[in-house]
Amino acid sequence: MNKNLVLSFVLMSFYSCFTSATEAINSDKNNCPDLCEDSIAADASDESSQPEKITILASRAPKHFTDLNTVSSLVSPTQLTIDPSTILDMLVEVPGVAENGQAGLFQVYSIRGLSRHRVLTYVSDIPLKAERRAGVASSFLHPLLLDHAEVSRGPASTLYQSGSLGGVVKLSPGFFNGSFFSADYQTQGNRNSQIYGTGDTDWSAVIARQYSNNSEDAYGNELNNAYNQLSGSFIKHWSLDGIDYEWMLLISDGDDIGRSSTQYPDRLVTVPSERHLLSQFSAQGVDWRASIYLHPNEIETLTIRPGQRENSVVNKSQDYGFHFENNWKAPAASVEGLWGVDGFKRANIDAVEQELSYSDSSVTLSQSLNGATEREIATYATLNRLWGETKWQMGARLINNHQTNQGYESISDHAVTGFIGLSQPITSNVLLTANIGTGVRFATVSERFYTGTTGRGEVIGNPDLSKERSLSFDLGLQYGNQNKQIKVNLYHQKVSDYIERIEVSPGSLTYRNLNNGIIYGAEFDSNFVLNDQWQLGLGAMFVEGKDEDNNTLSDIPANRLQSRVQYFANGWSLDFSLQYRLSKDDFGSGEKATPAAWVGKLGFKKALADNFDLSIFVDNAFDEEYFSSSDDVAPYAEGRSFGVRLTKRW
To answer: CA distances (Å), 327 to each of 63, 206, 323, in order?
Structure first.
């Protein structure tokens, strides 16, 4: 394909965007009284192709309590160019979010250049924590089990646990009113999945299966990314004496999951088994909400060095906690607020390693995490005040964190985080936001105490790590009416005592605190409804990160531009998205340079009959050779893949 032609298309699209925005700002037509806040990732689409869903007892704070120091976008698995194979496929549609670490089902994400344990992922009220050094992957759930994901960029320090320096991803399970069945097939890896769901007004049950063989990159090289996974959900609603109740159960059972890497096949890393059970009971009144939850989980990682040895590491823990929030309002004084309490504990954290030597068949056992624990208790409050047309919001969170592991002294620490921000309407369609916020991240149990084998080498824990602190500034401008939404954000973040992974010898890693890390960047997000048939979406992200010695920080993604064009006709639609990833020549520890790349996706949807739909799609449409991240052992991404999906509802 002529890439200069494609570049011209992108530049013309951006020009069209700014021209349309200028015309809209100078026009009084089609103005809406409130700003439209739809994201490019949550564009309107043909609802006839989606299973019918109803809202569950979603979290937490009403919209007016949302931190002003976060920028939120909603993304639905049924509203993308092609249906996602993983939750990560959904998240990277949002400007500011990018892939990070090694490829495959366990690949994680970064938000505004922060990744690993500096971003948080929730399933409803349940925080996902793990002893993976690369961070938490939510890929154990089929993406079509979800109604949507909310991506909040910026330090969500008040409403969420420690570790939300870069932002928070909140996954909301879908509640299906009626029955549906969906099946798909992709040429890469003979990948296929099937999902069946049914329900009524007060209950919903869904089960999903996913399977893939190893796939290939654009050069035809085999990628170690096979998997076999079963997941499902059950949700029950009821009301009693004016209080709404909900019980949610999610399960996941994965086998033979490949960990894709350039070290393959010289080093073969797989996950023979991964097990999750998430259960939550919640109650909601007029102005309060409470929940309790548990999440036992277990994962086994097998590393085989042909002709030498194999290492099996089993990580498991029992996670549980509670969440309570109460909101209040004093209309006469134009004041409202939110206060609450959070408690979370990880108990019986174990990491047991077994090494089998091929030379003499000897077996060595070790356990660096033996009944370790982590407990975090927090209380928080926010206050909103309206002066004229200016809305002020402030909040604070008081946190206590306690960690233990056999053979080590227990570690207790505490912190206070907070924010203050304002939003100022410029016109009925233009909103200015500004804020400053602080955040904190305590070193994880594995960063402090785990010593042993990982998928990328040997790791040595450092119990003397200090907590990370952050100070963030964000300036945003939003424009919206019925047909156009535009968001621009500039941000700057300083992270003190930044925890960096470093290599102490070939194949051996540990952690240390840097003095400071500085991350700054910009995001652009827009959507235009051109007429009844055409929609245009444009986005961009630019981010840089340096330490005090001007060395590039790890996990900073390549800058990128993205565009999306949708056409809707009677009974069918066409969807094309294009992303240009700029080259990345400066890279951090454990990373490599990555060349520029064009990544295209094409989707076609057709209603074959009432409640019976066909989707045909192409992923990596140009068969581009590119790296999804700068990780030094990340392989090339999958080559071009063709797919088809059938969906029936009744």
So the answer is: 12, 33, 14
C-alpha 270/C-alpha 312 separation (Å) is 10
As a three-state string, the secondary structure of 450-496 is: CCEEECCEEEECCCCCCCEEEEEEEEEEEEECCCEEEEEEEEEEEEE
pLDDT at 156: 59
List b or e across 161-199, with b for residues whose CB sees 16 or more CB atoms inside 10 angstroms: bbbbbbbbbbbbbbbbbbbbebebebbbbebbbebbbbb
Is-above-0.85 flag for pTM? yes
Identify the segments of the chain with pLDDT beneath 50: 1-67, 69
User: Backbone phi, then psi, for 419, in 5-degree steps?
Assistant: -155, 160
DSSP states of 181-209 as a string?
A: EEEEEETGGGEEEEEEEEE-SSEEEEEEE
In the chain, helix, strand, coil percent, each to 5? Answer: 10, 60, 35
**Residues 275 and 251: beta-carbon distance below 8 Å:** no
Specify the 3-state DSSP secondary structure of 20: helix
Q: In this structure, how many other beta carbons lie within 10 angstroms of the beta carbon of residue 218?
A: 16
- Residue 328's pLDDT is 87
Burial of 331 (0-12, 13-18, 19+ CB in 10 A): exposed
Task: Count how many Cα atoms sit within 13 Å of the Cα of residue 560 in the half-sphere of its side chain.
Answer: 29
Nearest partner of 158 among 397, 422, 438, judged by Cα: 397
Put residue 292 in one of left, alpha, beta given phi > 0 → left and psi -120 to 50 → alpha.
Answer: beta
Cα dihedral across residues 330, 292, 70, 519: positive or negative: positive
Dist. CA 164–CA 380, nearest whole Å: 15
Tell me the C-alpha distance between 165 and 118, whole Å. 5
The tokens for 356 are: 């089998």
Please, what is the Cα angle at 37 between 35 and 41, to 5 degrees? 155
pLDDT in tens, 563-576: 999 999 999 999 99
CB 467 within 8 A of CB 497: yes
498-522 confidence digits (pLDDT tens): 888 887 887 788 889 987 889 999 9
Distance of CA 168 to the CA centre of its chain: 7
Q: Which two tokens stand for residue 534?
A: 């055409």
User: Nearest 10 degrees: CA dihedral of 77, 14, 574, 541?
Assistant: -20
Inter-residue contact 305 to 455 (CB < 8 Å): no
Q: What is the residue type of 83?
A: D
Distances from the Cα of 202 to the Cαs of 60, 207, 425, 505, in angstroms?
20, 18, 41, 57
State how far the alpha carbon of 348 is from the alpha carbons of 138, 193, 372, 406, 409, in Å. Answer: 21, 34, 6, 11, 17
Determine contact, residues 400/30, Cβ cutoff 8 Å: no
Helix (H, G, I), strand (E, B) or coil at 557: coil
Q: What is the pLDDT of residue 43?
A: 39
Residue written as token pair 């059938």: 646
Placement of tokens 């996602």 in the chain: 84
Radius of gyration from C-alpha coordinates of the chain: 24
Cα atoms found within 13 Å of the Cα of residue 505, Cβ hemisphere only: 4
Q: Which residues contact 187 (CB under 8 A, 6 or more apart)?
A: 641, 642, 643
Task: List Cα–Cα distances, 263 to 37, 125, 213, 223, 513, in angstroms.
Answer: 44, 37, 18, 10, 28
Nearest to 364 by CA among 298, 305, 307, 313: 313
Place of tokens 């949807």: 605
Which of 381, 383, 350 minimizes the C-alpha distance to 367? 350
Peptide bond into 265 cis (omega under 30): yes
Coil, helix or strand at residue 124: coil
